[in-house]
Amino acid sequence: MDHPAPTSHTPAAGARSPNDSYVARGMATASVGMGFFSAVIFFWTPFTSLLSSVGLILGLISVARGVKGGLRGENYAMVGTILCATSLTITVTLNQVLRYAQWDTLPYLW
User: Which pLDDT band holds residue 84 (cuts at 50, 70, 90)?
Assistant: First the structure.
């Protein structure tokens, strides 16, 4: 069986995808990491809210720019956005809403 000789062709100039940047892919992947870690430590009240909020912002920026994050087409940006939104919802529900529903008093704001 004869195989054709390999030809080298250069990609067209100016045909860059949003996934070409290491920093953009890192932002999408950081969103996944922050979302997972903030879901694990949901009981650390201020820190987990900060982590999930930053991860949500990074994920939304990556989704808006069209960056998927994975080299083989995995959509890490969307996964990170969903993880961070879920973690933020769990944190706000458990630490804010249920705390005041359980004791029937609102916090004193001084």
Answer: very high
Cα distance between residue 60 and residue 80, in whole Å: 9
Q: Summarize pLDDT for 49-80 with one digit per residue, the tens.
A: 999 999 999 999 999 988 888 878 889 999 99
Give the pair of three-digit tokens for residue 29.
Answer: 């992947």
Give backbone dihedrals phi and psi of 44, rounded to 5 degrees, phi first.
Answer: -85, 95
Alpha carbon distances (Å) from 39 to 22, 54, 73, 95, 104: 26, 13, 25, 13, 27
11 is a domain residue: no
Does residue 69 sit within a domain?
Answer: yes
Rounded to whole angstroms, the maximal C-alpha distance in the chain is 84
Residue 60 lies in domain: 20-101
The structure tokens listed for 98 are 């249920």
